[in-house]
Structures are given as structure tokens and as C-alpha cells.
Amino acid sequence: MNPLLDLTRRRFLGQMATGLTGVALSRLVAAENALPPGAHFAPKAKQVLQIFCPGGASHIDLWEHKPMLEKFHGTPLPGGEKEMSFQGKNGNLMRPPWAFAPAGQSGKMLSTLLPHMARHADDIAFIHSMTSQTNTHGPGCVNMNTCFTREGYPSAGSWVSYALGSLNDNLPTYIAIQDLRGEPPNGKANWSNGFLPARFQAVAMAAQQPLRNLARPASVSSAEDEAAREFLRTVNREHERQHPGNSELAARMAAYELAAKMQLAAPEVSDLRGEPQHIHALYGTGDPNSLKAAYARNCLLARRFLERGVRYVSLYCASRASNVDGFLNWDAHKTLKADYERHGPIFDQPTAALLADLKQRGMLDDVLVVWCTEFGRMPTHQEGTTGRDHNPDAFTTWMMGAGIKGGVSHGATDDFGRRSVQDVTSVYDFYATVLHLLGLDHERLTFYFNGLQQRLTNVHGHVIKSVLA
User: Fold this and answer.
1) What is the pLDDT of residues 413-424, one digit of tens each?
2) 323 HSE (CA, 13 A, CB side)
3) Distance from C-alpha of 441 to C-alpha of 95, rounded to nearest angstrom
4) Counting CB atoms within 10 angstroms of each CB, which of 35, 37, 284, 305 has the fewest?
5) How far apart are CA 344 and CA 460, in angstroms?
6) Cβ distance 51 to 315 under 8 Å?
7) What gap in Å lies between CA 325 and CA 167, rounded to an integer?
8) What are the backbone dihedrals phi and psi of residue 424, each rounded to the nearest 5 degrees, phi first?
9) Which CATH superfamily is domain 10-211+279-467 in?
10) What is the DSSP letter of 43?
11) Cα-to-chain-centroid distance, residue 112
12) What 8-state DSSP symbol labels residue 206?
């Protein structure tokens, strides 16, 4: 019988499903074994330090001076008298609790809440016209890290790891340093590999929480440990010889060998005791404020990771929300002055010390530093409080270091800081610029998933040329 005539509808659909499954599996195998595509052109930066302050750090209280807020303090926001924001009704305009003062040769007006950070004004390029796609913390943090509000997409650090690979042989390519107070909103989704192969996700480490299970069991001597590893290498080499062309096996062997190398490298890099006393004093690692001291140690750890060739380091200052608004992060809904007088000193000295230390060591020739938060805050106070509500229509980020023109500002919000109005930018533009400095064209950096050539910047984004050196 002609087999074509015997092809029933059920059999046809079954065979088609089997075939499509094979195609899908081949795609998955190819993706898992994909090699880093490499830079598209000569980079200005080789590494990235991302500093993230979760909670929606207020642009108008920290980075962007608004004289009209001071002049019209206590009066209604023009055109916004009946506006409802994230938590409801808003009151009148509220000036910042701290004065702004000129900083550096550029005379940049910055909040006196951050006197140490003001010393870097001439090296920083401020982006004052950022906008977010959401006014909710979890999706906002994920959006600022992945360009999407939904979980499941790769973080920028994962994209960079996938594109450029590692600069070292014994530490991860991408590390996320969590704050002592806990993970940021939506936790590990902020440094997830998403649909990229798993090896491109960040490894979470911190001064207060080094990698677990690195120490050799006390019952096993170093000689026994090395003998076991050598035996395993012999078995793996023989298996690889018998199965030539099995790149998945080679990749797994490389991963386990990296883990073995990390047993030696990770404890060394995490041991801050070898740093001279003047460096500890610079960062404030011995400060009586335990939260500031913990963050200072994480800042010092970040520098040590970068020194040893970690490609992308994400450093968090604060954590997810708590039952008390603004207690664990920058989400100052009710008592902005008290909240920021708690968070400001934790952030200010250690962060400024990290930037100064990178600069004095010449590391800013290769390291791009970016500061992020998920959105800004309203210029008004929330009704019945002295805090500010969420504002996704305006916030500030900044860049410093490799390839960046310091002492400049890009974009601006309106007179009161309510909305971005001049050279409005998005997270897509932000990361298009980061990738550009790393020698990557954001439109050409793609990964096939779910039937599409996916991008970090989706189908958007333009390089912010005014901040480039």
C-alpha cells in the first residue's frame, strides 16, 4: 500500500509533533553550547560595576536640584491638584529636607545629604530624564535590570556575560552582592539568566555571606582531596576520548573545574583582613553603624572582585520592602527625612570610597560604573504624611568611569521634578549605552528563543551620546 495514502490525520499530527520536538531539542542543545559572540567593535570599557539602591531613591532629594520646589513649598502642584498616585491622594509640593550646594569644578548642585558623593561630581554623567514602565517595586527593579517588567528575561549582567565571556579563570563572570538587609524586590530575578544558558546567571556573594560549601570537610586531608580530583580528571578525560565531539560534557567538566578553582580563589578574595588599615578607614568598614559597616565591606569586596577580573558586579544598597515603609530600603512614603537620614550615611561614605579607590588604582580606565534605582518620587507629599509616593515618570541614574564624560547632565524633568520633559530616556537607552561602551551593538546582540531573536533592549533603545567621552 502506498504509505502516503495510509497517512491518517492522527498519525500525521503525531509525526509532526515528534519532528517539531526534535527541532526544539536541537535548538536547546545548540543554545546551551553557544559560544560568546564577542565584541562588535573596540570597547571603551571592559567591566561594569552596577550600584543599585532599591526602593525608588528620590531624584529631587538627592541628585536633581529644583529651586521651584523650594519657592512653591506648601502649595498645590499646578495641574496636579486631583492627581492620584500609587498609594492614593497627594498633598502639596514639598521641598527637600536638605539644602543643595554646588559641587566640583562643574558646580553641579547636589544634596548636602551626600557630602562624600559630591566630591565625585566632576567625574559623573547624570541622566535626569529617566522613565519607568511601572510604579511597582518588584517589576520596577526587574525592569531596571532586564528591560522587562515580567520575570523570565536575562539581566543585563547575564547578557554581558553571554556576549563577552570571562576575564578570569577562577571566579564567576557575573557576581551579585546582596545587602545585609536582604535581597532586593523580586530577589534573584534581578540577576537571572532568563532564557540564556544557566551558566550566565550571577553568583550571589557578599562579605556577610561567602559562597557556601567551599571548605574541605575536616575528615578529608588535602592530599586525599587532590587525589580524588586527579582520579576524576582521569575518568573524565577517558570518557571524553571515547565520546569525541560531546561539547556538553566538555562544558560540564569546565564548570566543575571552575568550581574547584573557586575553592582557592573565593576565600582569598573574600578575606578583607589583608587590606591596609587606611583602606578600611576610607570605606568605613569599622563604623559603629552596623548596616553602614556591612555595606562598606561589600563595597570593598566589589573592588576586589573587579581587580581579579570579574566582568560584571552588581552591588545592592538596601533590600526589599518591609512592614514599615522606608525602613529597609529607599521607599520613603511616610517619613522621608527620617528614612533618608538613615539610608544616606549608609550609602554615602562607602560608595564614594569605592569610586575614589577605583580611581586611584587606575581601574576606571576599564571599569564602567552605573548607579540605578527603579523609579523616582513625587514632588508632593502623600496626604497626611511627610513622605513621597512613587513616580515612574521621572528619575535619575548616572554613569562614571570608562568611556564616560564627567561633569555633564543629560535631560531634565519639569520645574518641579514631576515628569521627564527634556531628552527623555528609558531603560532601553540606558543599556544601549552600557553595551556600546563595552563594544556591543545592542541591536546585534541577540539570542534565539521562543521563535524570536531576543535582545536586551527588546526593539527599542538609542545610545545616549551626550554622556560619552
Assistant:
1) 999 999 999 999
2) 0
3) 41
4) 35
5) 34
6) yes
7) 40
8) -60, 135
9) Alkaline Phosphatase, subunit A (3.40.720.10)
10) -
11) 26
12) B
